[in-house]
Amino acid sequence: MASSLAKAPVPASKNGRLCPTYIGANYLQSGPMTKCTLGFQGNLFRAFPPINCYSSDPKLATSHLQLARANDLIDQIKLKVFPAWRGAGEGHGWGWAQCVRWEAGEGGPSRGLECPLWCVLCRGGKERLKQACQRGRGVLCLSTDMLSLRLPQLFDIHQVPKVFQEDGIMSGYRHPRSSALDCILSSFQMTNETVNIWTHFLPTWYFLWRFSVLCSSLDFLAESYTWPLLVYMLMICLYPFTSSCAHTFSTMSAEARHICYFFDYGALSLYSLGCAITYGSYVMPDCWVNSWLHQHFVTIAVGNSLFCTSMSCFSRFVELQFPQKSKVLRTAAFVVPFLFDSFPLFYRLLSCCWGSCSPSEALASHSYHLLFAFLTCFLFASHLPERLAPGRFDYIGHSHQLFHICAVVGTHFQMEAVLTDMASRKDWLTSHSVLPSFLGTMGVLTLGILLNVGIIGIFSACLSQMPRQSTSTSSGAHLHQE
Ligand SMILES: [Zn+2]
């Protein structure tokens, strides 16, 4: 290639045409490499900086010697050039530098491109790039990889800071300092978080749809009997949405990751409060109605919610030093409110097993919900299946995805059970118990939200005091050095 290149026809290297070149900022700046600004003025590239172009124009190529040297270098290394998303800013600090890289021969180093490139995937963009590459190929043998527009590069476990690492997930990590826009775009790229994002984003819309149908058939404003259901429906829309957002934006920084998951835990905790409010109103066994537990059920649930959020947020602070302890704390944080909320349900199911229950259509749905809830807990705690085969389930099938799916399916059955209980027990409950009050439902939820946001605020403020290791990169994180 070197000799043919040296004799190549003079390419058009004026502004507005593609110089047949590799794209690289710091490499080969001297010699025959002459700076020119590529004039992709159309819709392909935006904010294109001056980049180095190779040109065999005799006026630009200062000597044959230098040209030959450059050609030797080009021959020695396999060139891979493709547009890279560098995100906002001037390309400092973060980016996808390794998307554009030189692949040296065996054992050679990879070179990152420290050049902010902006590539917009828009109508006709790919075609223009293809034409440009074909023009350039006549002079330089550009790799066909250049013809494919690539998404941001993903990283292996040893390339990201420890705080981002997940047990048994070996690849598919996004850049640990992604921008918000990158995070949103990454939800359309297959990463190890993509299925996590969608398995809670789509169910959010399902629950919103169910909520809107209920809004048209029930009078949530005037009928106080429906208020516990209103709280419950709001919470089952909120928790998957918050989780989806947390998974989307968790790679902006170590601090952002913690705060994202603080909100995720807070939403789950509020969901458990919503369950208690609705169970206290519709699911309580007949013989427990008006008992001490019934009267204090929601108050205790508020306490549980505070315990759940505090404990789960705290577990992130000890995660790096004591991963097992952290896991136990976090699991306990969610299991305690779940067991408490489900007490009335356990009683009803057990009394049915003993043959002394009043028949209820809802019990089957309640049972399915409990089954999926136990499965959810098991997946959360066990990290199966990726623990058995690290790296096999990075993108599809790891425990967190299954955990999301089981949680959502469980919530679906729970919603059906609550709706059935609510409708079938309405007459009995309204005649034997006081009607739910606004303060006891929406008031408690508002209080729960305020208290949870307060706890999240306190833990977020404490992040600066977190052990240094957790907010900085680990020893293997060479990304940070880019
Ligand atoms: Zn999740």
From TrEMBL:
It is found in: Membrane. The chain crosses the membrane at residues 225-241, 262-284, 296-317, 329-350, 362-381, 402-419, 439-463. Its main location: membrane. Keywords: Membrane, Metal-binding, Transmembrane, Transmembrane helix, Zinc. It is a multi-pass membrane protein. InterPro entries: AdipoR/HlyIII-related. GO terms for molecular function: metal ion binding; signaling receptor activity. Zn(2+) binds at H247, H400, H404. Pfam families: HlyIII (PF03006). The keyword Transmembrane helix applies. GO terms for cellular component: membrane. PANTHER family: ADIPOR/PROGESTIN RECEPTOR-RELATED, MEMBRANE PROGESTIN RECEPTOR DELTA. Belongs to the ADIPOR family. This is Progestin and adipoQ receptor family member VI. It comes from Cirrhinus molitorella.
